[in-house]
Recover the amino acids of this structure.
């Protein structure tokens, strides 16, 4: 891993298997220039794996979370990276979401707007936003705001 690179780690409940959502996740994961990992847990039970790197930040995708623009999301990741965070973990819960304890423990709660999204689609959307955020931070001309 590069000296200043922060691992972006999606940890999601449920199996994505072979699906259009899995293809989208893979498509964007391949474009992310930062270290990237995707881990799956069963719908219920199973332990969230320990961090690969420390210090670590945890972001829960949660309906009570903060909706952010792509630029705000990129700025948050860039700030954490610049502060020396080595791993940023994005937790996507099962259909019933996350419990109060997990929400209280998280460093940030993030939502993709007020609509409810299937968790398989949320993975692909998150991977796209991680790619977009890293492109913004790299000054890549792809990203267009507004």
């Amino acid at each position: 891993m590069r000296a200043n690179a922060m691992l972006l780690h999606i940890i999601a409940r449920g199996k994505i298997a072979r699906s259009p959502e899995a293809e989208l996740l893979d498509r964007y994961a391949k474009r992310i220039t930062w270290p990237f990992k995707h881990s799956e847990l069963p719908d219920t039970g199973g332990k969230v794996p320990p961090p690969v790197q420390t210090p670590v930040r945890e972001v829960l995708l949660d309906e009570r979370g903060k909706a952010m623009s792509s630029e705000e999301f990129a700025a948050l990741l860039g700030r954490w990276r610049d502060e020396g965070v080595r791993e940023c973990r994005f937790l996507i819960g099962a259909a019933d979401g996350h419990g109060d304890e997990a929400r209280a423990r998280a460093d940030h709660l993030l939502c993709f707007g007020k609509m409810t999204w299937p968790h398989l689609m949320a993975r692909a959307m998150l991977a796209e936003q991680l790619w977009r955020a890293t492109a913004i931070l790299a000054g890549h001309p792809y990203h267009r705001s507004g």
Observations:
- The chain has one domain: 7-138.
- DSSP finds four helices and five strands in the chain.
- The CA atoms of residues 78 and 137 lie 7 Å apart.
- The first strand starts at residue 7 and ends at 13.
